[in-house]
């Protein structure tokens, strides 16, 4: 068994882990990264549909959905979105903005990942790839026993930053293995569940609507109480609903389903048009064009598949003329389009989730340092912590902010000799 000694060891080579390692090394700590996959930053490559929306100019507590938002903002304000943009500018990553969303100017996630990897190389940070943790325990320092296909290692380090990710998107290496490490080290872990994920429904009209993408507003109700809402392009599928607005509210629906509560999604399929504006036209239009079928009558308002589902939900025949159907039936169809109900029965799994809710409880972490309140020298960063943000660069901002703080504070530990 070969032995190694470091000031700081980062477990996990994702966004937060790489930022933590770079920051620690930039501040004089002899640093190493232990990563259990074949490369660093795999999950970064899938963010923003490969374009890497790495932060957002709108950055406040409403952008995060976990319980302790003050904790999150305290960390982010120590290394905010402007500082993240400046950090990457120093590494040669110019940025561009679209409605507040910030992307690398190249619009390629690989450029962000490569820039971090090159900085890691420049700083002389040692990397152990395809390396698995067998055990971690603390005496005077931390002792980490780990192994790969070639050898067993014992790593002696003054500080550890646990940045091993969550359960979300396990194909990227984020397979939940970090939670076991945390539990073995005495941490409390809130049950991880998917977030930013598709929702399943038993609505019998899902198959009719499948394939449609249409702007609307989705509201989530838990036991009859509205919990969250969002507006944008909703995707209708044969199993339920998807799209960015669904992702934004999904964490509440997932938690409700997991807790066996009654969860419903009410979708306003024409949220940009008021009911009264359509209703006032219906009687006039029926008199003017009574020969039109229900499908034809509403074709200029919304996709015909959605019209079909709304009509069938009130037992109306879409091939019936509106002259025969009458204004009251047309009013009912409009009401369905404005408030179409999906009973939420489930959700897609971790393999489809962009992030997780749950993780290491924030009550165990010092928000000014990201250090464990129970184990001196142990720090946390990124998705392994019970923090989840909305779509829009917020989860990467959290990764970079928490990684930077953990790396900075671990390098300032009194028992680390400055190089």
UniProtKB/TrEMBL annotation:
Its cofactor is FAD. Residues 7-407 form the RsdA/BaiN/AoA(So)-like Rossmann fold-like domain. Residues 194-355 form the RsdA/BaiN/AoA(So)-like insert domain. SUPFAM superfamilies: FAD/NAD(P)-binding domain, HI0933 insert domain-like. The keyword Flavoprotein applies. Keywords: FAD, Flavoprotein. PANTHER family: OS12G0638800 PROTEIN. This is NAD(P)/FAD-dependent oxidoreductase.
């Amino acid at each position: 068994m070969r032995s190694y000694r470091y000031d700081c060891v980062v477990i996990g080579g994702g966004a937060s882990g790489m930022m933590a390692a770079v920051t620690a090394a930039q501040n004089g700590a002899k640093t190493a990264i232990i990563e259990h996959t074949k490369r660093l930053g795999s999950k970064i490559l899938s963010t923003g549909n490969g374009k890497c929306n790495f932060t957002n100019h709108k950055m406040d507590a409403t952008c995060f959905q976990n319980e302790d938002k003050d904790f999150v903002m305290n960390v982010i304000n120590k290394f905010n979105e402007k500082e993240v943009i400046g950090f990457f500018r120093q590494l040669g990553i110019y940025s561009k903005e679209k409605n507040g969303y910030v992307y690398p100017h190249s619009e390629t996630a690989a450029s962000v990942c490569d820039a971090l990897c090159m900085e890691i190389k420049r700083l002389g940070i040692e990397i152990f790839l395809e390396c698995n943790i067998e055990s971690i325990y603390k005496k005077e320092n931390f002792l980490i026993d780990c192994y790969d296909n070639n050898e067993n290692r014992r790593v002696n380090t003054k500080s550890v930053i646990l940045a091993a990710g969550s359960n979300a998107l396990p194909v990227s290496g984020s397979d939940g293995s970090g939670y076991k490490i945390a539990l073995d080290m005495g941490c409390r872990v809130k049950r991880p569940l998917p977030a930013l994920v598709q929702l399943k429904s038993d609505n019998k009209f899902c198959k009719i609507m499948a394939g449609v993408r249409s702007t609307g507003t989705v509201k989530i109700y838990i036991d009859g109480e509205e919990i969250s809402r969002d507006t944008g392009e909703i995707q209708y599928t044969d199993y339920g609903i998807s799209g960015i607005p669904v992702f934004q509210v999904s964490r509440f629906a997932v938690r409700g389903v997991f807790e066996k509560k009654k969860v419903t999604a009410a979708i306003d399929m024409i949220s940009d048009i008021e009911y009264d504006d359509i209703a006032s036209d219906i009687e006039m239009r029926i008199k003017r064009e009574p020969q039109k079928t229900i499908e034809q009558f509403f074709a200029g308002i919304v996709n015909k598949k959605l019209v079909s589902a709304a009509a069938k939900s009130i037992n109306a025949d879409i091939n019936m003329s509106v002259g025969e159907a009458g204004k009251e039936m047309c009013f009912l169809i409009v009401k369905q389009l404005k408030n179409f109900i999906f009973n939420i029965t489930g959700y897609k799994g971790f393999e489809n989730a962009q992030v997780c809710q749950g993780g290491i409880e924030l009550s165990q972490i010092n928000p000014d340092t990201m250090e464990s309140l129970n184990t001196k020298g142990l720090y946390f960063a990124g998705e392994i912590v019970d923090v989840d943000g909305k779509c829009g660069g917020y989860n990467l901002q959290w990764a970079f902010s928490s990684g930077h703080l953990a790396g900075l504070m671990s390098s300032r530990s009194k028992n680390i000799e400055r190089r």
